[in-house]
Amino acid sequence: MVATASATASATAPATAPATAPIGVFDSGVGGLSVLRHIRAQLPHEHLLYFADSGFAPYGDKPESVVAERSLAVAAFLIANGAKALVVACNTATVAAIKVLREHYPDMPIVGVEPGLKPAAAATRNGKVGVLATSVTVAGAKFLLLRDQVSASSHAQFLLQGCPGLVDQIELGELASPAIRTLLERYAGPLLEQGADTLVLGCTHYPFVLAMLNEVIASATSRQIVLIDTGDAVARQLARLLGAAGLLNADDGIVAGAAGVTEAPPPAALQGFTTASEAALSLAFANLLGIAAPVRQVII
Description:
This protein has 300 residues and is α/β, with parallel strands linked by helices. The chain has two domains: 2-114 and 231-299, Rossmann fold (3-Layer(aba) Sandwich), CATH 3.40.50.1860; 117-228, 3-Layer(aba) Sandwich (Rossmann fold), CATH 3.40.50.1860. The chain has helices at 33-42, 64-80, 91-104, 117-123, 135-139, 141-154, 166-171, 178-193, 210-220, 231-244, 278-289; strands spanning 2-4, 23-27, 48-52, 85-88, 110-112, 128-133, 157-162, 198-201, 226-228, 255-256, 262-263, 270-274, 295-299. The strands form three sheets. It has a seven-stranded parallel beta sheet with strand order 1-13-12-3-2-4-5, sandwiched between helices. Belongs to the aspartate/glutamate racemases family. GO terms for molecular function: glutamate racemase activity. Keywords: Cell shape, Cell wall biogenesis/degradation, Isomerase, Peptidoglycan synthesis. Its EC number is 5.1.1.3.
């Protein structure tokens, strides 16, 4: 069944959300599941709402203003469904919309995906860092400012590579397809040829093709290449913000049952929403995370 969302971008966050309220996580598609798995691992008691805007994907080939407007609409939907915090699990949406989201919801914990330039600068041995990302991300003013700041402080050289079409292929779910290998060779190859010893996965979709990327790297060079995935850092920052706001659902693992007998608490809930196929998101949950979760198609 398709539900039409009534939330609008002018929706306001609840003044005092309970700690047991869910966390809203969204991405243009299934890429944000790479962040979701870190959140589930680090915050196992937190209830989660995951929104895959696959019907509007990819964000990476759309103007920043369009992505910002769309992000506001998705955020409003999640908040209308009770979210106490937001995770923008998409590099493109973070670049385009994190500032306006924080302006709209100043009292809500909101975490975006940092592009990993700082850890990459610390990891590189020769000072050359390749960045694989969407075209919008590598052209974004916020990203370029961060690149200049990190480069000035670390003297690292950042080699930027937009990756048109890669998100589309990953969304299809065939993670070992010849088409994905061709794109990875096209985009990672020039960075390796220029001497990069560190590659930033600047889109949350890309960790899902890590195995294929490692094969491409091994075919192109015998040098050791460091890969930077920032999903773990996002989950840690989310935990810090929730703790500071008193919103951690810090279940101690024991609840009182009948006659004072202790029982295990119910498992944390995960609800999926998508603007495309329910079956596709359910399959992504199963294939990429190994879990089953209810999914509802919505129109916003």
